[in-house]
Each structure stands twice: as structure tokens, then as C-alpha cells.
Amino acid sequence: MKSDKISEAVVRRLPVYLRYLNELHLREVATVSSQELGQKLDLNPAQIRKDLAYFGDFGRKGIGYDVSYLIEKIRHILKLDQQINVVLVGAGNLGHALSNYNAFLKDNMKIVAIFDAYTPKVGTKINNLVVQSMEELTATIKEFGIRIGIITVPDVEAQDVADKLISSGIEAILNFAPTILKAPPHIRIHTADFTTDLQSLAYYLDNGKEDADHDEA
Amino acid sequence: MKSDKISEAVVRRLPVYLRYLNELHLREVATVSSQELGQKLDLNPAQIRKDLAYFGDFGRKGIGYDVSYLIEKIRHILKLDQQINVVLVGAGNLGHALSNYNAFLKDNMKIVAIFDAYTPKVGTKINNLVVQSMEELTATIKEFGIRIGIITVPDVEAQDVADKLISSGIEAILNFAPTILKAPPHIRIHTADFTTDLQSLAYYLDNGKEDADHDEA
DNA sequence: TAGATTGTTAATCGATTAACAATC
DNA sequence: TAGATTGTTAATCGATTAACAATC
Questions:
Q1: In chain A, which ranges are E strands?
Q2: Which nt sits closest to B54, CA to C1'?
Q3: By the 8 A CB rule, do A78 and B202 touch?
Q4: What is the rounded CA–CA span in Å between residue B189 and residue B182?
Q5: Proximity of residue A39 CB to strand D below 7 A
Q6: Domains in chain B with CATH codes
Q7: CA-based nearest residue in chain B for residue A77
Q8: Which segments constitute the CoA-binding domain (chains A, B) (predicted)?
Q9: Chain A neighbors of B97, CB-CB under 8 A
Q10: In chain A, is it the N or the C terminus that has fewer CB atoms within a 10 Å radius of its CB?
Q11: Is the minimum distance from the CB of B58 to strand D below 7 Å?
Q12: pLDDT higher than 60, residue A212
């Protein structure tokens, strides 16, 4: 197929493929079919083939996909074949937790700087990185060529931080604050909000009879 | 409208509505239109009206939605008008961070127990909760009527933990481990995987000329 | 060769959006 | 009343899935 505009749904599945392919590679599995991939990842095999076909003909008819080759291709598509520098803003509990999450590292994503607005925190060390004050944000982003920002500040500060990141030249933001950030269209924002995740889970709890919500069936 | 099967997309937007409505309520705003809601939340007003109409006629033509009334309704729909007890498995950095995330609390979701498989951690205190050993998991879940589990253990342990949670009677799981969990269909699982979030963000970085990926335009 | 599996088209399904009568 | 805004139907858009010829 090639080209076309790729939908976000497709892009979001690529890292999932990559993760399982890495696992296969570790187990020295050489080849995998869309069927097996689908079974393992709870996805339709046709969807997987279609997703991959957007980017090229990576498989072989009758055989399947070469694991190593596909890993290489997906890494390239996701731009993980180069180091991506990441900045983390907000050295609270969550920021702390994310900072020593090395899962990023093996895929070339690296948190290279941490910032916090709270003065007493500035200068302390988190995972070999010295927490910097917000004044240095722009300079550091430029110096290290940082391209992605992770926001783990309280919700009221999130928009301000986003604005600063954007004006400093960041291209994409992963936002953990429970708020909808406004940004120009060329800035990509993903929201990772477990409050809404958890609340939407509650919907699916089964309350049996009790009040049955009036329109049960 | 009423009834129909509600899609997950709709359910996932409800907590977002709720959050902003709570903010309006705090600011003592009495009424809000789908238009204003849409603007603030980056959603189509028609979609918001449709989402809400699945559950009842909550608005008034020509007026909009009564903020307090809508909050009450959404909280009921999401079952947040009763306390939902949550268990956290995995007392590592992330688990630690989540455990003192009181945002849950104000919406009636409460982490009432924490478990970890690592013996030296058992017995230590995290946010007033004593970390318990996995042997006590089932008993505690039953005793406290815990209905939702949060998994923050390493990926290799996640499926085991999920199995244990499920056999102990948990109804829904929020999984932070980077792996696809298998579970019977009546168990609701949400995956909160920031590794894939972050990796999919990298796709949208702009590499300008450099190699242009062969099929740029 | 026979069996397996891709890439891709066509069919289906579902979700979003536009439009508007009803009505506050 | 005139203006605003809902609830809902119909239109659109997009994503998923089935099916199958090509081919390893």
C-alpha cells in the first residue's frame, strides 16, 4: 500500500507490535505470522497486516514476517533508531517514578533533564539527574536537542508548563496532569490520565439488581 | 434516547465531562452548554449531547445543562456515588506514586490495600497502609469488598497477578505493566502503558529532510 | 505440489458530525 | 417574541474485518 495518511490508531499499535517482536527476538524466534501476532495481542490478523502494509511490504507470502527485519522497520518508522531526548517537568512522586523507568532507554528514549518549580527541590538529585529550576528550561531543551516533554506537575500548572515547553521548541508532549492542554496543531499531545482510566472502569462494575439504572433490558 | 449498548469511547469521555463540571461547580457556575463544554474539552458539541442523551434527558432546550444536576447524574452513571474499594499490587516506584494520589478519593475511589511479592517490602508502610504479602490477597479482597485492582508489578509478573485478582473476585483491572493481559470477557481491563504512549509520540516528530522516509509527498 | 500466509480490495461496522424540529 | 440550545435523525466519515488472488 504505502503512503496515505496514517491514523493515530495505527500509530498507537506499532509500539505494541514492537514490544512483542522484541520478546520473540529474545526467544530467538525468527519468523511470525499475523495470525500468531493477533492471537497474542488480541488483535485481528487482517488489521495487523494492513497496519504494517501502510509502511511497506515487510512480510513474505506463505511465510510471515521476519522478526528481526520487522523490528528494524518499526523502530525506523517510530524514529526509535535514533536517540530521542526527553525532558520531565515535575519532580513529584509520579515524575520520580517515571524517571527511573528505564524501559524508555532500551528503545532510545532518554530522560536527560528534570525540572521543578518548587525551589527546595531544585538541586536535589533524582536518578543521577540534578533537578533544575524552570528558568533553565528553554536553554536546556535547546542545548540537549530535547524533543519530547513529559508533564507530571499538578493540573493547575500543566498548561503553563506546556506553553513553556512549546515555546522552547518541544515537538510533542506526554501529559499526566488531569487536564486538557491547549496547543497549536503541530504539537502532538498524548494524555495519560489514570484518573479517567480508573473512573471509566467503575462504569463496568456490576451492581446486580440493587437499582438497575431503570433501563436494563 | 436511553438504552442501547454504550460504546467504550462514550464511557471514557464521561469522566472528562465530570472533571470539568466539578471545576465549574467550584467556580459556582450554574449552567453550561454543550458548546462551551466542547470548546473547553476539544470535543464536538453534538457528540457531547449525544453522549449524555444515551443516559437520559439531562439538559434543557434553550438553556443548557444544570452543572450540579449533571454532576450528580454522571457520578451515578459511573457508580461514583458509592465508595469503590481498590487494591494496588506492586509497591514499587509507580505503585508508590499512585498510592498517594488522592484524586481518586474525592470521587469515592479508595486504595484500601497494597500488596507486594517482595518479602522485605511486606510490613513496611506506604501512606498509612501496610504492604501485605500476596498470600493475603484473596482474603483481603473479600473482606473489604474490593472490586478494582491496579497492577504496577513488572511485566513478567503481571499476568499472574491478574489471574490471582480475578480468581479473588475482582471485576476490573487497571494495568500499568507493559503487557497484554488475558482475562475472561466479563473482566474489564484498561491498559495504562506510557511506554507505548511515548513511543507513539516519537512517530510524530518531524525529521525534516534528512531521509524523508521515502514516501513523503 | 499442497499448505500457509501475505497484501489489498470490498464489505461491514461503528463512531462522529451536521442539521433541524422542538422548546425553553 | 427572538435567541439559544437541546435531543435526535440522517449523513458522513473512518476504522475494522472478511475474503481472496498472488505467491512463497
A1: 31-32, 59-60, 64-66, 84-89, 109-115, 125-126, 129-132, 148-151, 172-175, 188-191
A2: D7
A3: yes
A4: 9
A5: no
A6: 8-77 (1.10.10.10), 84-199 (3.40.50.720)
A7: B203
A8: 79-180
A9: 92-94, 96-97
A10: C
A11: yes
A12: no
Q: What are A84-115's pLDDT values in tens digits?
A: 999 999 999 999 999 877 656 678 899 999 99
Q: What is the pLDDT of residues B80-121, one digit of tens each?
A: 999 999 999 999 999 999 987 765 677 889 999 999 999 999
Q: H helices of B155-213, where?
A: 155-167, 194-203
Q: Are B111 and B98 in contact (CB under 8 A)?
A: yes
Chain A: give the shortest CA distance to residue B200, in Å. 5
| Distance, Å, B78 CA → D12 C1' | 30
Q: What mean pLDDT comes out for the span A113-134?
A: 95
Q: How far apart are CA A100 and CA A111, in angstroms?
A: 9
Q: Write out pLDDT tens, residues B112-126.
A: 999 999 999 999 999
Query: Which tens digit of pLDDT belongs to each residue from B33-67?
Result: 999 999 999 999 999 999 999 999 999 999 999 99
Name the phi and psi angles at A21, rounded to 5.
Answer: -60, -40
Task: Report chain B's mean pLDDT, rounded to a whole number.
Answer: 92
- The mean per-residue pLDDT over the stretch A155-166 comes to 97
Beta bridge partners of residue A188, listed in sequence order: A172
